[in-house]
What does this fold into?
Amino acid sequence: MLFNSLSFAVFLPVVFGLYWMLQRKNLVYQNILLLLSSYYFYGSWNVRFLGLIVLSSGVDYVIGRALGREENPRIRKLLLGVSIAVNIGLLAFFKYMNFFLESFMELGNSLGFQMAFVPWNIILPVGISFYTFQTLSYTIDIYRGKLQPIQDPISFFAFVAFFPQLVAGPIERARDLLPQFLKKREFDSDFATEGLQLILWGLFKKIVIADQIATYINPVFADVEAYSGIPLILASLGFSILIYCDFSGYSDIAIGTARLFGFRLTINFRAPYFASSIREFWNRWHISLFSWFRDYIYFPLGGSRVRRGKWVFNILLVFGVSGLWHGAAFTFIAFGLVHGLLYLGEWKINQLFPQKRRLTPWINGLVTFVLVVLSWVLFRSESMADALYIYRHLPQGLWEQLTQPDVFLDAISAGFFTIREGIYIWASLAVFVLFEVKMKSGDPTEYFRSLSRSRRWSVVYVLTGWILMFGAYEKVQEFIYFQF
It folds into this structure.
């Protein structure tokens, strides 16, 4: 069930109405409704996947309670190890088994063995990367003494399966979200209104921007060798906008939907393309994931409080793992490692040339944006060969395309099939950029709050009208991060 589907447009009001009808009942009734609704929401993709999320929830609920009772350090480590093994084991099997087998076969063949790779027929469960990290935060924090185990299984299972953020985050820490299931929730019209505003902005980014752009750039990435120069540049730039609008659009809808039910989720994006450094970019992009890796991998390895060589290793490991988290492909690993190298290179340049920091923010921001756009080529390409082809052919024929009007129009039409469609998408992008600049803090609700009542309603009407007029309804696509 997609946020941008008719079925969700029916599902959400029904659950919302039933949920607040139960407000005067015992809190457990609301949590039961959320649990059942979340399982229905998740099961609408493939009901067989429900068994995995129930298994993961059950294992960590039992281990969490055992950790709360146990004082023997060795047994506590064993319990935590079981939790990590079960969760990471399930994730590794469903997400990486074919990748590991194929890599092993290729290594064997390179050593002279004749090994044929036959892919296993494994379906990747939607959202497994997200809820796995969410449940792991629970057992790890109990082990560290930062969280007390919960006794109420309904609340815990609802926390793991909470449908607004189940499939693609934000990845919530147990210590932040779980307590919200344990306290009575009162309907707050202002809070709910903020939720609707977030949903509206998220739908605009997904339906008007991301889904439209996908139609234009997917043919380019599907056959990169047919293009050079401007089409490849537009496709690379277009994907950078697409992935931001698609993923942050999902996060906004998820956060807004949660607010309709009285829950506050983590802001997952804060205008990342306004960052003036790679470090700042990752403090603004997919915040819940980056902070998870920081707290549960980087800091336990010693963070920056280690010798220089170990610190470099820690940075590359975290970024490499973050790339692998996105998918079982060398392009994703390369994407992560490239960002790790950019992070380290930026740190070194700042040391050698401290005056660089005195450059105007827009210069640093432009350089950062170009580097991020180029790195997205690795993320989007079907293979490393395609990515390398794009990098080599970005400048090819560019001078001719820019100086000859007929060649320029042909190059533009290769990415934007008709002049009319091009006008629609460029006009929509202008509206998007205008609001992004206004919402520079990264939290749309702060922007809406700053407006007078009349201006606030004007913005709502503009966004709603634009969605109805220019939404890509005939081209509805899944959110990109569903595959991760």
User: Anything to note?
Assistant: The longest helix spans residues 73-110. The chain has a mean pLDDT of 86. The chain is about 70% helix and 0% strand. The two ends are 16 Å apart (CA to CA).
